[in-house]
Amino acid sequence: MARLSIYPFARLSQLNSATINSLNTELSQMTLENDLRRQLHERIKRLRDMGTYRGRRHAMGQPVRGQRTRTQVCDVQFDLIRDKFSDGIGMKKWLTETAKKLNKIERRG
Question: What is the pTM of this model?
Answer without folding.
Answer: 0.54
